[in-house]
């Protein structure tokens, strides 16, 4: 258990690091320090001995805010926006194939007229 005299002296800090320009920040660990400067120095000392990093973030745990249940409710979608998701377009290839099979092209329609005229001419000449 913490001593009453040091209880308010140390604060919990969360440490994040980035290995190179292409990677994202990753959570590493928590540490106890009296202030931001000391927390950063402790995080640098820990990482410089172990692995190369290009950036370190040190954040006081009390500064991290979590969303309330009411705020989470505002993130839910009220209306259907499936058209924004790629899965919403999966049926289009099938639809297009059905459309192409059902559509008569101009040459096909004209060929019907020629066949009818040709058979009519054969009847009249015979």
Automatic annotation (TrEMBL):
InterPro entries linked to this entry: PaaB, PaaB_sf
Task: Extract the Pfam families matched here.
Answer: PaaB (PF06243)
The record's annotation in Gene3D superfamilies points to: Phenylacetic acid degradation B (3.10.20.520)
**Could you identify this protein by its name?**
Ring-1,2-phenylacetyl-CoA epoxidase subunit PaaB
Q: Which organism is it from?
A: Bacillus oleivorans
The top of its lineage is: Bacteria, Bacillati, Bacillota, Bacilli, Bacillales
């Amino acid at each position: 258990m913490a001593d009453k005299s040091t209880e308010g002296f140390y604060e919990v800090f969360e440490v994040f690091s980035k290995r190179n320009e292409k990677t994202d920040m990753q959570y590493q660990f928590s540490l106890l320090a009296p202030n931001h400067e000391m927390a950063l120095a402790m995080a640098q000392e820990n990482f410089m001995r172990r692995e190369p990093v290009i950036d370190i973030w040190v954040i006081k745990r009390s500064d991290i805010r979590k969303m309330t249940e009411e705020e989470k409710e505002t993130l839910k979608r009220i209306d259907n926006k499936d058209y924004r998701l790629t899965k919403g377009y999966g049926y289009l290839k099938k639809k297009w194939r059905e459309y192409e099979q059902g559509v008569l092209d101009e040459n096909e329609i004209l060929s019907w007229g020629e066949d009818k005229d040709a058979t009519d001419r054969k009847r009249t000449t015979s």
